[in-house]
Amino acid sequence: MLGTISGFDRIGEENAFAVLARAGALAASGKDVINLGIGQPDFPTPGNIVEAAVKALRDGQHGYTPATGIPELREAVAADIHGRFAIEVNPENVLIVPGGKVTMFAAILMFGEPGADILYPDPGFPIYRSMIEFTGARPVPIPIREENGFAFSAEEALSLVTANTRLVILNSPANPCGGVTPKAEVDTLVSGLAERPDVALLSDEIYDQMLYDGEKHVPLLGYPEIRDRVILLNGWSKTYAMTGWRMGYSVWPASLYEKVRKLAVNAWSCVNAPAQHAAIEALTGPQDAVGEMVAEFDARRKLVVDLLNGIPGVSCITPKGAFYAFPNITDTGRLAKELASDLLEGPGVATIGGPDFGILGEGYLRLSYANSQDNIREALGRMRKFLAGE
Ligand code: PLP
Asked: What's the sign of the alpha-carbon dihedral 154, 159, 160, 162?
């Protein structure tokens, strides 16, 4: 019998992909399925970005690029961060990677080992915990609570820091709850970690432009006192509707850059060249499409929350960011994953059960409102009827 290293027995999953596959199989067999499961914009990538990739292919951009990314793209990333937040970033610290996930893979691999503690949000993106367990480190959940507006509490996070803590993972705006961390909480966390220069921070800011109700993003790179230990995770997937292009970037402290550059050389060599040219256009071209998408998400957000709150047994607070609603379904008397499965197999509505995002996700469903308003109305109408036993 073949043996593998034990990490592979601990590696987890992102169930949104399993739900996507099941929803696809049901649809292929003729069932009418509305997918509120997967977290990807339902808009096409803006035309100017697609054209830039086509042009790059026609111009013969078919070979390897530097492992760290095309210099012009690394400069465009630095300029974009400066333009939006007035934060100086040296393009030499920017790494272009094949998708947002790759930065969490690299950062968790860098700090995770048996004996190390890594803090991560729960409910949170499932890959954090999966990768932590893969490395043999101890996953330490930071509870994300509904009564706190699904914002994380710095005080609670700091109380979980031990002598073994090596990495703290933050995510705002957040998947799956749509919470946004208030600046005061980030301030408290940063001052609490001032005495712990051995603790690194991975800040997953992939939804940084998906904010509503006048919320302002608080970039972790904006704190000079921790700047030498912050790893920024971001990318093109959500902001530019480019999930299938696999384009992400990270900003690394100078002391870690050489290590992660070598990981890139070992693991993926470089990122798809035409996609990198498209990413330059995304950052430097017109930004109207981003604003239009966010305005549409905002309208859907209000719709989805209104409709959820009209379903007996369901209550939903208004998310401030990303494109997810995280309704509380405890009063339906149903377990979340069973309800999600019944909604898919019965009325054909794909959602994700809260426990797929962590232990504290029981009692909740995640609905992605990256779907049309008509589909949202139809899906929530079906959900209401199903729960009413009609
Ligand atoms: N981080 C968070 C919080 C996400 O929700 C996602 C995708 O759903 C990612 C990272 C990964 O993005 P990508 O598809 O670019 O790998």
From this structure: positive
CB of 235 within 6 A of ligand 1: the answer is: yes
Q: Which residues on adjacent β-strands are paired with residue 121?
A: 142
Token code pair at residue 205: 């800011």
123 C-alpha to ligand 1 centroid (Å)? 14
The number of the ligand 1 atom at minimal distance from the alpha carbon of 39 is 8
Mutate-to-test residue for ligand 1 from 14, 17, 175, highest number of ligand atoms within 8 A of CB: 175
Q: Is 371 in the pocket of ligand 1 (CB under 6 A)?
A: no
CATH 3.90.1150.10 describes domain 8-44+288-388: yes
Torsion of CA 359, 361, 362, 363, to 10 degrees: 160
Q: What count of other Cβ atoms lies within 10 Å of the Cβ of residue 97?
A: 26
Spatial CA neighbour of 246 closest among 34, 22, 48, 53: 53
Matching CATH topology for 8-44+288-388 and 63-284?
no
Give me the residue label for tokens 């009325």: 347
Which residues in 351-371 are b (16+ Cβ under 10 Å) and which e? bbbbbbbbebbebbbbbbbbb
Consecutive sets of 10 residues in the chain, 390 residues long: mean pLDDT of each?
Answer: 85 85 92 92 96 98 98 98 98 98 97 98 97 97 96 95 98 97 96 95 98 96 97 98 97 98 98 98 98 97 98 96 97 96 96 96 97 96 93
Q: Do the Cβ atoms of 100 and 149 come closer than 8 Å? A: no
Q: In terms of pTM, does the model score above 0.85?
A: yes
Q: Is the CB of 237 under 6 A from ligand 1?
A: yes
- Architecture of the domain whose range is 63-284: 3-Layer(aba) Sandwich (3.40)
The string of DSSP codes covering 60-95 is T--S---TT--HHHHHHHHHHHHHHH-----GGGEE
